[in-house]
Amino acid sequence: MRAVLQRVSEARVEVGGEVVGRIGHGLLVLVCAERGDTEAAGERLLAKILKLRIFSDEAGKMNRSVQDVGGGLLLVSQFTLAADVSGGNRPSFTGAAPPDEGRRLYELFVAQARAAHPDVATGIFAADMKVHLVNDGPVTIPLQIS
Does residue 80 carry a catalytic annotation? Predict the structure, then answer.
């Protein structure tokens, strides 16, 4: 699975002009299930996200996790993270999991996140979403777990 984490002061997702997910201080996580991904890959990805020390401590060093700071998680499915542009100017998304499998893995990832962390919001799988965020830092971290 692939993810892009953005440390945010605030973030929200809108679908059809309505807010469907919102967090304050925390992580916006764009999540992509790829062909061949497993439930175990999602578990490893979530464990890394929850423990990744990218929030500042009293000395201003990146030494705290989202759990340490009590931050929120906004999980947004984004199959375009699987884009392959090596063959030309139009991206290919054949590396993304098929929609049914992508939905299953994303929903499982969300359920695991909610079981492990108290503040989890989401977008809507396969919806046309508008994501608003204030990137804090900016800090943006790409992750890939096989």
Answer: yes
In this structure, the dihedral spanned by the alpha carbons of residues 37, 41, 42 and 44, taken in order and rounded to 10 degrees, is: -170
Angle between helices 99-116 and 39-51 (to 10 degrees): 40
| Residue 97: inside a domain | yes
**In the chain, which ranges are continuous DSSP H helix?**
39-51, 66-69, 99-116
Query: What is the residue range of 89's domain?
Result: 2-134
CA dist., res. 132 & res. 146, Å (int) = 29
CATH number of 66's domain: 3.50.80.10
pTM, rounded to two decimals: 0.97
Asked if residue 146 is part of any domain, the answer here is no
Count the domains in the chain: 1
Q: Output Rg (C-alpha) for the chain, integer angstroms.
A: 15
Active-site annotation holds for 78: yes
Query: Does 38 qualify as catalytic in the annotation?
Result: no
Q: Is residue 55 part of a domain?
A: yes
Annotated catalytic residue within 38, 55, 67, 79: 79
pLDDT mean values, one per 10 residues, the chain (146 residues):
98 98 98 97 98 97 98 98 95 96 98 98 98 97 94
